[in-house]
Design brief:
Number of domains: 1
Order of helices and strands: EHHEHEEEEEEHEHHEEEHH
CATH topology: Rossmann fold
Radius of gyration: 17 Å
Number of helices: 8
Largest sheet: 8 strands, mixed
Shape: globular
Strand content: 25-35%
Number of strands: 12
CATH class: Alpha Beta
CATH architecture: 3-Layer(aba) Sandwich
Structural class: alpha/beta
Distance between the termini: 53 Å
Length: 233
């Protein structure tokens, strides 16, 4: 059963966007657009929490499959409100350690990371958070290198146990910095680990990235553009 968060209960627009993700008739282009718009909506919610000032320095982190849509939606809406926003993109391979579905892991095989100096706020975004292994892996990588004052975890949809699970993965002095922003919480999962209704299946397939292996060959457009813009002239 789906429960909408306080940020979505009174928004017909957000409800419609969530429904479009679940709808199997939604084509890849519209599916991607829905994630972009949900990223913008998450950014608006975060801004309304009075979390930023014109001097705030932000790092926005995501997995490669979320970079051009969810993450870009957040970045485009947020960058004019903060001093700086740098991007960190991770290519993860999800698997089960020792063939045990309860031991999900997501090792990083490639990264694109801009400056990590003087980060005030770290935002980790993910299309859906279920086992939290991807978020856990990417977050661990970053907090070994930076000490942000606040850590925002943003996702359109969460599985009901995701927050508790993620908090338990970190020492309290880290998890105390967590603030969660999401629009829907689901409590059903299939035998193969797919959250229902979730985001309507595999995000890789729905976005046209095929599967978890081939999506790691995809270089997000936002990475290409920012890499080119940051190269010395």
């Amino acid at each position: 059963m789906r429960q909408l968060s306080q940020y979505a209960q009174n928004s017909n627009e957000i409800k419609s966007l969530l429904d479009s993700l679940v709808d199997q008739r939604t084509q890849s282009q519209d599916y991607a657009k829905a994630f972009y718009e949900l990223g913008g909506a998450l950014s608006d919610v975060i801004q309304n929490s009075n979390s930023f000032s014109s001097e705030t320095r932000v790092t926005l982190a995501c997995s490669s499959e979320d970079a051009d849509w969810l993450s870009k939606g957040i970045l485009d809406h947020l960058e004019q409100h903060v001093a700086s926003i740098n991007l960190a993109v991770f290519w993860n391979i999800r698997s089960n350690a020792f063939q045990n579905s309860e031991l999900a892991v997501a090792p990083i095989i490639k990264t694109y990371i801009e400056s990590l100096e003087n980060v005030d706020v770290l935002i980790i975004c993910k299309s859906i958070i279920n086992t939290s292994c991807v978020v856990r892996t990417n977050l661990t990588y970053l907090i070994e290198r930076i000490t942000p004052k606040r850590i925002f975890i943003a996702s359109p949809v969460l599985f009901e146990n995701a927050i508790h699970s993620l908090e338990n993965e970190f020492p309290k002095f880290i998890s105390d910095k967590f603030e969660f922003f999401y629009f829907a919480e689901d409590d059903e999962v299939t035998a193969t680990g797919e959250v229902i209704p979730g985001i309507g299946g595999s995000v890789y397939h729905r976005l046209g990235l095929e599967d978890g292996i081939k999506k790691n060959k995809y270089i997000p457009m936002i990475v290409k553009e920012r890499r080119e813009a940051n190269q010395p002239g």
